[in-house]
Amino acid sequence: MVQRRNFSSEFKAKVVLELLREEETVSQIAAKHKIHHSILRQWKKSVTEGLPSLFADPRKKSAEDESPKFPYLLRGVDINHPNHTWGSDITYVRLKGGFMYLTVFLDWYSRYVISWSFSDSLSADFVVEALEDAFRSARPMIINSDQGSQYTSNQYVDRIRSEDCNIKISMDGRGRCMDNIFTERFWRSCKQEEVYLKDYESPREARRSTAEYIDHYNHLRPHQALGYLTPWEVCTGRGSKRVYIK
Asked: What's the pLDDT at 66?
C-alpha cells in the first residue's frame, strides 16, 4: 500500500509558482518533486481559477495538533471604544503571474485598518510584521483571529505577550468564520472594490494599489454602520458607535 504524502501550504505555493513561471514543463516539475502531474494541475487550477482553499485550508491546525489553544472571548461583549478589540486574518490575492497573501489588523470598533502586510508564503513572519506595525500605533485589550498556524505559532503568541501580558488572545471556533465578522466584512469590501477590479502585474503593484485602497478606506470612505463617518473619524473620537457581539 502506497503511503499518502502530506504537503505543506508553503510547499504547494512554491511548486505552483514554478508552474506559473513556465520555465519548465509540468512533467519536468512533477519528476523533480516526485509528484504526479495530475496533482500539480489540480493545484494550478485552484490558483488560476481563484480558489484559495487549496492553500488556505492547510494552515488550519488539526484537532490533534499540540499548538496552543485559546477560547473565543467576544460573545456577548460590548465593544465601546477604539482599541478594545483588534481582529486579524489572512486572505489570498491573485496576481497575473501568481498570487500573494495579505494580512490585516483591524480595529473592530472603528473598522480602522491599523496595519497590513503582504507575503508570497504562509509563514508566520508577515503576520508578526503586521503585528509589529500595529503595536507602533496602539495596544488593544483583545486580539482575535482564527486558529491558523500563523496565529498559534510561538512567534506570534510570544510577541503579543512580550508587548503586554494583559492583552488577551481570542480565537474563532473551528469553522466559525462569523466569529471574525468585522474582518471578514473588510475582506468583502477589499475584494469587491479593489482586488476583483484590478489585474496586478507584480507584487510591487499589488502592494502599491492595496496601500492606496486602504488609505481611501480608512480616511475617505464613509461607512453606513458608522453613521456615515470614516473609520479614521471614529477611531480618533469624532464619532461613536457601540459594537455588540451576539
From this structure: 56
CB 31 within 8 A of CB 15: no
The string of pLDDT tens digits covering residues 194-217 is: 998 998 988 889 999 999 999 999
The cell numbers describing 60, all together, are 488550519
Regarding the domain delimited by 78-244, which CATH topology (the fold level of the hierarchy) does it fall under? Answer: Nucleotidyltransferase; domain 5 (3.30.420)
Neighbours of 82 (CB within 10 A): 21
Rounded to the nearest 10 degrees, what angle do helices 181-193 and 203-219 cross at? 120
Separation between Cα atoms, residue 60 and residue 37, nearest integer Å = 26
Of the two residues 168 and 178, the one the predictor is more confident about is 168
**Global confidence as pTM:** 0.71
Return left, alpha or beta for 176; rule: phi > 0 is left, psi -120 to 50 is alpha, else beta.
beta
Q: What's the grid cell of residue 216?
A: 481611501
Q: Domain boundaries in the chain? A: 9-59, 78-244
